Amino acid sequence: MSDEKTQPIGPGPGEEPTVPLAGAAGDTFAAETPDTGTSAARSPGAKPSTGRSPSAKPAADKAVVDESPAAEISDTAAAEAGSAGSGDPAAAERSEPDADAPSDGVRKRISGAGALIGVLLVLLGFTLAVQLKSNSADEGYNSLREEDLYVILADLDSRADRLRQDIAELEATRRELNSGASSREQVLKEAQERADDIGILAGTLKAQGTGITLRLSDGSGPITANHLLNAVQELRGAGAEAIQIDGNGGSVRVIASTHFVDVGGGGIEVDGVRLTGPYTVTAIGPEDLDKAMEFRGGVVDDVRGDGGNVIVSDPHPVDITAVRGTPNLEYAKPVS
Amino acid sequence: MIAVLALIAGVVLGVVLNPTVPDALQPYLPIAVVAALDAVFGGVRAKLDGIFDDKQFVISFISNVLVAGFIVYLGDKLGVGVQLSTGVVVVLGVRIFGNVAAIRRRLFKA
Predict the structure, then answer these.
(1) Rounded to a whole number, what is the distance in Å from the CA of B108 to chain A's nearest CA?
(2) HEC readout, A302-334
(3) Element (H, E) at A253
(4) What pLDDT score was predicted for residue B96?
(5) Among B13, B29, B97, B102, which one is least packed by beta carbons within 10 Å?
(6) For residue A177, is pLDDT > 60?
(7) In this complex, do B40 and A124 lie within 8 Å of one another by their Cβ atoms?
(8) Using CB atoms and an 8 Å cut-off, which of residues 97-156 of chain A contact chain B?
């Protein structure tokens, strides 16, 4: 600043003004204008401050109080001087509270070392926020050192290897399951066919195929249960796969448990269904089924011998339409 | 008061500007922050004890940051970066705890 100001201080600081500067320093917050420093101002200010500060603390406050009007100018000047000598800002700020000049005080309060501290703290806050942010964003990889990264890389490599292995295993399993699915389909198909066959044999499904019909009617003698039983047995013996008996009163599918009972007053009860003649027996079986009926002692012989009439058709496509309900097995369980 | 405002202003700036940390600084920044925190807690404690000194604070702040950064740098060069920075963090952490304990005793008498 001006030489005039510094000069009064110059001598002053030597003994008196310097004292207030140093003494106030204890508590006060920073306040100085950093821009004001001139080389001229600095040199006088800086020297005294460094030299005096330790020595003259207690005296300082009093001196300030006494001098307050006069000191103001010198203080400001000293402050500038102190600030200019960046090494020792403290001395300058201390002068401020002593001065007590409101306008100057306010302005100075936000300057000097305080400003420096403010800047540092702004920096700290800034860095803190940035660091927190980058850390959360990068999962910490940023702050890791090379060797850590190597370890992580190796970890990742081995994990990738394991995962590749897993993939290969899973693909193999998938292939297996796929082929398994096709074989499962095959099994299902076979099972269905088997169930169909059994259904036909058990009388739960309708059937069609090449077969014959026997038409039995009363002649000089009646058709009895015996005749029907013989006929069924002959047909089975010849390889018939599905047999149905029709008569007046209904149709009955012949199954393993079929039974025949003569009913008094004419007619035959087949599995509880009463039929009266003429009876038609339809059977699906081998092509020579009709010939099997005409063996000596066979169905035809048997019926005709007892006075009945029997007509055997040639093999032709026949339908068997009567079905039985699926039995509910209550006691017997399949083995395995 | 000013200090708190400055700190808040810094945080706000950091959040608003959202800069990316240059690669070269990345290992040092966390340590520097911890070191600065140590200085700040020391300053608060000194303030409460009535022996706060601006010059001392500024110098300790800067030197803390520089020394911490230098130690990390040296550790990196020596190949013990991780251990050394861990050591720095531990030491600073102990100091911070000590300062906080002093502050606590002064404020709450407990």
Answers:
(1) 22
(2) HHHHCCCEEEECCCEEEEECCCCCCCCCCCCCC
(3) strand A250-254
(4) 92
(5) B97
(6) yes
(7) yes
(8) 110, 112-114, 116-131, 133-135, 142-143, 145, 147-148
